[in-house]
TrEMBL record:
Compositionally biased region (Polar residues): 214-224
Lineage top rank: taxon: Eukaryota
Role this protein plays: Cadherins are calcium-dependent cell adhesion proteins. They preferentially interact with themselves in a homophilic manner in connecting cells; cadherins may thus contribute to the sorting of heterogeneous cell types.
Alphabetic keyword roster: Calcium, Cell adhesion, Cell membrane, Cleavage on pair of basic residues, Glycoprotein, Membrane, Metal-binding, Repeat, Signal, Transmembrane, Transmembrane helix
Membrane topology: Single-pass type I membrane protein
Gene Ontology BP terms: adherens junction organization; calcium-dependent cell-cell adhesion via plasma membrane cell adhesion molecules; cell migration; cell morphogenesis; cell-cell adhesion mediated by cadherin; cell-cell junction assembly; homophilic cell adhesion via plasma membrane adhesion molecules; synaptic membrane adhesion
Domain Cadherin: 24-104, 105-213, 214-328, 329-433, 433-555
Protein name per Swiss-Prot or TrEMBL: Cadherin-6
GO molecular function, one term: cadherin binding
InterPro entries found in the cross-reference section: Cadherin, Cadherin-like_dom, Cadherin-like_sf, Cadherin_CS, Cadherin_Y-type_LIR, Catenin-bd_sf
Chain positions covered by the region annotation Disordered: 205-238
Gene Ontology CC terms, in alphabetical order: adherens junction; catenin complex
């Protein structure tokens, strides 16, 4: 049994701890044998007396660090060093003592449990471990207990499961709980080691609280002019729950304004917004009373015993009076009038009144943007519509105008209504041919042969439809070579009356046809059908007529005419360009530069001094053209020939300015050395004044004698007014 030794951990003695003794049968006690120890901790933790074989532990051992040590022992001859027995293995087991307290897997646990849970509802489970040997004694046997958190929670001693211990824990009263759990070894007996942990438990919300209005009555005001959808006010019911359990839906359950107002829920604020559903009228109803209900959409059936999860409040809405515009008795008016109605004929009337209690008077007017021609007018006092111009149904069947009703005391309050006026038809248009009829008859035509079918149209629109009758004019009825056959369907046929026609005797017949309608008063018109006599083949097809053929007219098409016009225009443009090129005189420039003096205008921006400035220029030069120095040849072009400079003859002192300019123009046109046609020629000449005397009346008063203005009568009708004013002065004085 020497191969297993036991040793207590955590030895606290001052001497080495004795482990055991090794002994060999070969040991006779004479000191010839020597004991040797090897293996785990040999020579360090464990030492052996080589003479006696006693084994001792030199240090405190911890089972939790190493519970078992394996060593080997051998006895050898001290002198020879040879083993007297084979090497043997033995173990040293460290006996456990309760030197480790239980440790929880978490320092802090977090758990949740619904409020109002039943007793024994699972909350969480805690777990602790003990490093001591669970197979030796009770050092590692753990028992759980609750140190803090009673009477709300309990813990199972063996499993560490935490459960609710109190009924109807309400989150609204207390939401957070801190529970302290203890784990103790040695089976919970005295002397055992223990450890603790904290469990933070939160009660989660359930819908166990109904919504409640903070007040039973709400009161709001809104003007009667509020359009549908206008918010009037907000109401809010409070709910102690959280999240979706606190969602509230608002509804109007009863009241006078059930169909006049609506309530919607603001999802962010959980408020009920009262809005206008239909147009309000202060004059009809001034106060509305509603019953608004707030309820939870998410209800848990197990809490229905707590009562209905809804609440109601009374909402009073007072409608405020607003100055409203006049209201017409109809949304639209439709009137009718005959087109032969005289001016100022009354068509009908419109009616509007002020809906306010004041019943302010109303005046009527026509929106002239809808009646630009001012065909209709309205009596501003009673709303009667009458015509101001004659009507014509054929020009415009419907007249759509707008009538405006305005309060006299407050012109800003006005309203509009459409007025549709239909013009009724009167038989005031005669029927006429639907088109211009021109036909032919063959020379060999037989009697009663149909040569043309004619139709008529009428601008009028009788109620019973058109019924036209056709007949020859009275003056052509007797002795006519053709007859009219009325088909009774608003058409008629033209028939031959004899056999054979001669185009050489009569090439064209003009047949007057009278067209009458069947309405009252009867309207009729006369149309002319042109019938040409032509030569035909055996099938009755026209071959030739005395005049130009009707079926095959000669002429040019539109495309041909356009092509001819384009050719003429092209030819004219070519001729004009050629003539312009012939007239342009090309000259080789002497100055080849980008700054050709002919293509640039130099501006000096010098301002003259006026007539008093005699230093700026020589005024005598303008009065005496002979003083102008000799013209010089141009240096920018090559002259075609050298011409001697010629002196321009001076103009007479009394020469007219026009004659002077014409003379200078002629000289420049005929001068080959003159600048080209695109250069600027200056004809500086100052006239000597007009030979005519002044007509000013200011000078007239300075003369002693009377002046004769009779010559003004000879100047034509434009001076007739002056002649009347001044010509009769003498006669006035005489009289």
């Amino acid at each position: 049994m020497w191969n297993q030794f036991f040793l207590l951990e955590e030895y606290t003695g001052s001497d080495y701890q004795y482990v055991g003794k090794l002994h060999s049968d070969q040991d006779r006690g004479d000191g010839s044998l020597k004991y040797i120890l090897s293996g785990d901790g040999a020579g360090d933790l464990f030492i052996i007396n080589e003479n006696t074989g006693d084994i001792q532990a030199t240090k405190r051992l911890d089972r939790e660090e190493k519970p078992v040590y394996i060593l080997r022992a051998q006895a050898i001859n001290r002198k020879t060093g040879r083993p007297v027995e084979p090497e043997s293995e033995f173990i040293i087991k460290i006996h456990d003592i309760n030197d480790n307290e239980p440790i929880f897997t978490k320092e802090v646990y977090t758990a949740t449990v619904p409020e109002m849970s039943d007793v024994g509802t699972f909350v969480a489970q805690v777990s602790a471990t003990d490093a001591d040997d669970p197979t030796y004694g009770n050092s590692a046997k753990i028992v759980y207990s609750i140190l803090q958190g009673q009477p709300y929670f309990s813990v199972e001693s063996e499993t560490g499961i935490i459960k609710t211990a109190l009924l109807n824990m309400d989150r609204e009263n207390r939401e957070q709980y801190q529970v302290v759990i203890q784990a103790k070894d040695m089976g919970g007996q005295m002397g055992g080691l223990s450890g603790t942990t904290t469990v933070n438990i939160t009660l989660t919300d359930v819908n166990d609280n109904p919504p409640r209005f903070p007040q039973s009555t709400y009161q709001f005001k809104t003007p009667e002019s509020s359009p549908p959808g206008t918010p009037i006010g907000r109401i809010k019911a409070s709910d102690a729950d959280l999240g979706e359990n606190a969602d509230i839906e608002y509804s109007i359950t009863e009241g006078e304004g059930l169909d006049m107002f609506d309530v919607i829920t603001d999802q962010e604020t959980q408020e009920g917004i009262i809005t206008v559903k239909k147009l309000l009228d202060f004059e009809k109803k001034k106060v509305y009373t509603l019953k608004v209900e707030a309820s939870n959409p998410h209800i848990e059936p197990r809490f229905l015993y707590l009562g209905p999860f809804k609440d109601s409040a009374t909402v009073k809405i007072m409608v405020e009076d607003v100055d409203e515009p006049p209201v017409f008795s109809k949304l639209a008016y439709i009137l009718q009038i005959r087109e032969d109605a005289q001016i100022n004929t009354t068509i009908g009337s419109v009616t509007a009144q002020d809906p306010d209690a004041a019943r302010n008077p109303v005046k009527y007017s026509v929106d002239r943007h809808t009646d630009m021609d001012r065909i209709f007018n309205i009596d501003s006092g009673n709303g009667s519509i009458f015509t101001s111009k004659l009507l014509d149904r054929e020009t415009l069947l419907w007249h759509n105008i707008t009538v405006i009703a305005t309060e006299i005391n407050n012109p800003k309050q006005s309203s509009r209504v459409p007025l549709y006026i239909k013009v009724l038809d009167v038989n005031d248009n005669p029927p006429e041919f639907a088109e211009f009829y021109e036909t032919f008859v063959c020379e060999k035509a037989k009697a009663d042969q149909l040569i043309q079918t004619i139709r008529a149209v009428d601008k009028d629109d009788p109620y019973s439809g058109h019924q036209f009758s056709f007949s020859l004019a009275p003056e052509a009825a007797s002795g006519s070579n053709f007859t009219i056959q009325d088909n009774k369907d608003n058409t008629a046929g033209i028939l031959t009356r004899k056999n054979g026609y001669n185009r050489h005797e009569m090439s064209t017949y003009l047949l007057p046809v009278v067209i009458s309608d069947n309405d009252y008063p009867v309207q009729s018109s006369t149309g002319t059908v042109t019938v040409r006599v032509c030569a035909c083949d055996h099938q009755g097809n026209m071959q030739s007529c005395h005049a130009e053929a009707l079926v095959h007219p000669t002429g040019l098409s539109t495309g041909a005419l356009v092509a001819i016009l384009l050719c003429i225009v092209t030819l004219l443009v070519t001729v004009v360009l050629f003539a312009a090129l012939r007239r342009q005189r090309k000259k080789e420039p002497l100055i080849i530069s980008k700054e050709d003096i002919r293509d640039n205008i130099v501006s000096y921006n010098d301002e003259g001094g006026g007539e008093e400035d005699t230093q700026a220029f020589d005024i005598g030069t303008l009065r005496n053209p002979e003083a102008i120095e000799d013209s010089k040849l141009r240096r920018d072009i090559v002259p075609e020939a050298l011409f001697l400079p010629r002196r321009t003859p001076a103009a007479c002192d009394n020469t007219d300015v026009r004659d002077f300019i014409n003379q200078r123009l002629k000289e420049n046109d005929t001068d080959p050395t003159a600048p080209p046609y695109d250069s600027l020629a200056t004809f500086a000449y100052e006239g000597t004044g007009s030979v005519a005397d002044s007509l000013s009346s200011l000078e007239s008063v300075t003369t002693d004698g009377d002046q004769d203005y009779d010559y003004l009568s000879d100047w034509g009708p434009r001076f007739k007014k002056l002649a009347d004013m001044y010509g009769g002065v003498g006669s006035d004085k005489d009289s």
